Amino acid sequence: MNPGGEYEDTLLVARREEVASDVVALTLRHPAGRDLPAWEPGAHLDLVLDAGPTRQYSLCGDPADRASWRIAVLRAPAGRGGSARVHDTLTEGSTVRVRGPRNHFALRPAARYLFIAGGIGITPLLPMTAAAEAAGADWRLLYGGRTRASMAFADELASAHGDKVRLVPQDEEGLLDLAPYLTAPAGPGTLVYCCGPEPLLQAAEEACRDWPEGSLRTERFQPRTDEAGRESGSRAFELVLTRSGLTLTVEPERSVLRTVEAAGVPVLYSCEEGTCGTCETDVVEGEVDHHDSVLTDEERASGETMMICVSRCRGPRLVLDL
Ligand code: FES
């Protein structure tokens, strides 16, 4: 456990497989063969890369397998170096520091599911389809990618689940068209889970606008574009930390996280852009100005927690359980 109460350890890369063009799947085990913490579909892991960025990857193996974790990583040429480091340095027998798992994309019980994946966004949905199948739910998966060869796990999904899986390689069929599937709620009790590039997520949000609240859940590994462009931090406010007994001032262009850290209060964080959920903190009092890409609308409205790396306070005073 680390100071934030999360599991953190160095694991062994027990297996490495090329599962699509530019996608490598890694199976991680404890070097001493110990069980790893339990997880549920939708969970992700931090890889704490040597002298490099910390990156989040969804667990895509079998939650019942406590001896190993599996992730799949796309080499992102325009990325910030994390995926290249994974591809270039994590070979079988090497070790990697991990933290988590953490889940902000949990699969809720439902009679029907529509899963929508774009590219490497298939990873969190893979164990979800297995869970939906095991629960006897009625489910479909729409899975789009640049080419068939770039779509990790496409063949195994199609051969295991037949016409429940609709594969849409862009070079053969064009972009994934959500309209036929999302123009109207597909009956009461249908939940939609979507993970992929920002345009796909926004298309799903647009198409589900008239669905019952909470029907659509999305997972982002990049900040929402509407959040990234929002002006934030133009006002200072008072910050009270109840457990530390401190009263601080959050200056206009400084984050809550950096303010807390500068005051010597230990706080766990990773992405610092509101996507990973590591810095989620309980709010005692104050109206939060949310700027993260993790919390649902209901969770934002409840005001119970906030991501202190990006979110701020609308009023003059914020009280946190820190
Ligand atoms: S550090 Fe990732 S959400 Fe705040």
UniProtKB/TrEMBL annotation:
Listed Gene3D superfamilies: 3.10.20.30, Nucleotide-binding domain of ferredoxin-NADP reductase (FNR) module (3.40.50.80), Translation factors (2.40.30.10)
GO MF term (any one): 2 iron, 2 sulfur cluster binding
Residue stretches making up the FAD-binding FR-type domain: 4-108
UniProt keyword annotations, A-Z: 2Fe-2S, Flavoprotein, Iron, Iron-sulfur, Metal-binding, Oxidoreductase
Cofactors, names only: FAD
Database matches in Pfam families: Fer2, NAD_binding_1
2Fe-2S ferredoxin-type domain boundaries: 237-322
Top-level taxon of the source organism: Bacteria
InterPro entries recorded: 2Fe-2S_ferredoxin-like_sf (IPR036010), 2Fe-2S_ferredoxin-type (IPR001041), 2Fe2S_fd_BS (IPR006058), Beta-grasp_dom_sf (IPR012675), FAD-bd_FR_type (IPR017927), FNR_nucleotide-bd (IPR039261), MRET (IPR050415), OxRdtase_FAD/NAD-bd (IPR001433)
Protein name per its UniProtKB record: Ferredoxin
Species whose genome carries this gene: Streptomyces violaceusniger
